[in-house]
Amino acid sequence: MPPSEMAIEQGRLRAHAARLKAGWRGGDRSLLAQVLLLALLLLAAMVFSGSIMTGAADASLGNVVRWLLGMAGADQALSVRDRIIILDIRLPRAILGFLVGASLAVSGAVMQGLFRNPLADPGLVGVSSGAGLGAVLMIVLGSSFFGPLFALFGFYALPVAAFLGGLATTLLLYRIATRGGQTSVATMLLAGIALGALAGAATGVLVFMADDKQLRDLTFWGLGSLAGANWTKILSAGPIILLSLSVVPFLARGLNALTLGEATAFHMGISVQRLKNTAIVSVAASTGASVAVSGGIGFVGIVVPHVLRLVIGPDHRYLLPASALLGGTLLIFADMVARTLVSPAELPIGIITAFAGAPFFLWVLLRGRTHMGI
Amino acid sequence: MIRASNLSVRLSGKPVLHGVGIEAKAGQLTAIVGPNGSGKTTSLKAIAGELPYEGTVSINGHDISRLKPWQLALKRAVLPQSTVISFPFTIREIVGMGLSVGTRTADGKNDEIVKSALEAVDLSGFAGRLYQELSGGEQQRVQLARALCQIWDPLRDGEPAFLLLDEPVSSLDIRHQLTIMRLARDFCRRGGGVVAIMHDLNLTAMFADRMIMMKAGRVQAAGAPNEVMTDAMVEKVFGCAMRVNTTPHEPVPFVLPHTALG
User: Fold this and answer.
1) In chain B, what residues touch A260 (CB-CB under 8 Å)?
2) Which CATH homologous superfamily contains domain A29-52+60-72+86-365?
3) What predicted TM-score, i.e. pTM, was given to this entire model?
4) B87 closest CB neighbour out of A22, A29, A118
5) Residues contacting residue A167 through CB under 8 Å, at least 6 positions apart
6) pLDDT tens, residue by residue, B81-121
């Protein structure tokens, strides 16, 4: 069979497979989605407790649970050590990992809905770089220029600065890439590259200006890692992430309608401008907060929603919560890999997600380029 | 009824409509015809409330500029010329989106309405297919089913709802052209109203109760098809001299492009 015919044959088979899947219950995939949500919840609980139990040091979860429940453990000294490892190192790390992963995946899904394109992602189109610039600005110039801001926001200053950086980038990107309700993919990606490069250059200038102590802060922050997770970071980024995630369910119906176009969404009774504003602010806030506490962790926002769409379809009422669960779970898992692969040393988690995510992204591009308008 | 008076619209600074007046009564199919670029779609968009305009537009006596998007969505549904979707929704999911807007029924009934809407556009059995696999004409019918679901009850609490259709049949084969036009007429019979932009003068004459002819952003003539569709008017509006004939039994006007001179 000549290659061209083989390609057609493959296409036909794929279309057939998609039909079979979609044909389930007459095109209504909501039951499937509900079952998947339940399964993801279980998986999240399993991976979460797994990550608390594994690590370089041997610390038994059973002992800690017994201690928490007030039961006297066999060896008191061991329990205290376990307690510190689990409650002050692994638990905050797993919680932060889940929050960041959920926020990255949901931001990706919301942004893809907003731009009506499966390739939009805060990391890919420069929003993370903009948020990074905000964070670096705060680290380097914070004490000298933004003293009052520091005083006002305390440890929220860093996430707030990252949020403002991300917000400015998202707004600029939307302005540039969307004309008359139509988003040009090429413009979006290219403008994202330009904005990301601009933010990167500005970040470079700031790093150049930084003193030794600030450089150390920057290096730790910029690696894209959950290594510095502690309760303070959770308290600073957690509320912002949770707040922006709690808005997202109210966007689901509007984002569904928006996939039919801005005019049609309006015809269907959606306040399109309000929907867009809410989506942009929530993406910028959760991306900003994530970047502020964990640096640049790429590809979660593009891989997770895409995989889920293959299984349950693009209905945002299910896609958004499922993205939160799978994104959080995946990031905890990636962090476990990062911690244990070269134990007792650690790989930055950004390396793991890039190694897994980038090839996947290329595969998505090759597979879907015909019907994704690129 | 829908009443647009003294409607003027500028698109990127250029005046496109000049004081257009359009009336569409409930129970009637009102067709807007005219050459390309005469302002038909712009008029429909202004009536739908999606464009800034000068003048007034009201639905059932309510000024549409004072209604919120969700309130408008209960009074009218819109079928655009074409809809491109970049996510793999099933037909069931797209048509169901229309439901979630205004048609608030018990859960059990939703499936029934989606099924009947798909039947009405002759797409039974397509519920599980993906939108991207369908042809342009089929996609157009899916969108019509979605719009139908939005105002499933043409007389909601005694207030008529309106279907605004932008070229509903231009990408359809002749059998489905008739299916859709009959569907529109049936919607009117059940108390709703339809405003449709049409290119096919013969279908328009067959089904429309009122015909509005537009040219260069102005209304040239409005009335029953057999009053409006005359040799002189067709030549004036379309710049194409041809003979208008009538069918033998009920006098319905028709044109044959074969009769065009030059």
Assistant:
1) 83, 85, 94, 97, 143, 146
2) ABC transporter involved in vitamin B12 uptake, BtuC (1.10.3470.10)
3) 0.86
4) A118
5) A280, A281, A284, A285, A288
6) 988 888 889 999 999 998 866 555 556 678 889 999 999 99
